[in-house]
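Problem 12. The chain below contains 310 residues. Write out its predicted structure in token notation.
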Amino acid sequence: MIAYFARLIALSLACLFLVNLAASVVVAFLVPRVIARARGLRADSAAQFVLALRLSPAFAAIFAVAVLCVPSYLWLEPVSAAEDFGVACSIAAALGFAVVSRSLWRAARAIVRSRRLTRTAVNEISIVDAPGSFMATTGLFRPRILVSRAAADSLSQAQFDAAIRHERAHGTSRDNLKRLFQLAAPEPFPFWRGTAHTLDREWARFAEFAADDRASAGDIDVCVSLAEALVQLARAGNAPELPLATSLMADSRDLAARVDRLLAGVHPHAATRSHWKTAGVISASILCCAAIANPASLLRVHNLLEVFFR
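Solution.
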């Protein structure tokens, strides 16, 4: 029985690695076109679009393992079967284990560091005596806003309020949780790292644009105050690198673009939750799983696994 489930684990890891690798190759070729198209979308839609592409290889791999590999093995593989691992299966399983372990370790380390940081925030908005001038939202499900003493002292009340609205927008959209998904997504190495970094960078850029749009909500006074707050914190510099946190001025490379958008009045309507859209996606996913995980499909998958990994 132990050998039976050990082989299942090895097959699952091998499938996860290979599907993730194949999907990552496809995504790598699509990245330039996707980014060009995303830049023509509304900021919140662009952020969702890029994030979906970033996580698609991991989702495809998990789907293949959970819906195809495991059910076909449990249904069609005899418990008494004593088959050896093939060379291809052993190598792919080892690589899959290495990729998953690295991603989980990276996510776990970020969670631990984030929890330590969140403990310093007693209230929703906490002024902390920390080096540098920064304002950031930390926490996954109960966002807390940390403001360094230097940042609080350097901003006017209007600038401070506008910046707080920006950070609350990050909390409402669960951007820190999305960052965690990016960290936890298994990445085939080494070629995917550059593509993943590009997508993470573009997602962060669009997420900041979207938070600016939600915070300003078309109010020109808030737009000006938020732009002034960005410039003020950028001048102060020395913003620390925070784990699983969205900093108001984390990347000065986007400062000019963000200020220009705010002062030019580019404020699309704030994103609204579409329950019908969510329900549609869930229903389509369920139907897709039901269509794929039928006996005929599972039989084909089992035969393919037998041929490839023997």
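Discussion. Confidence is low (pLDDT under 50) at residues 268-276. Students who got a different answer should revisit the alignment rule from Section 12.3.
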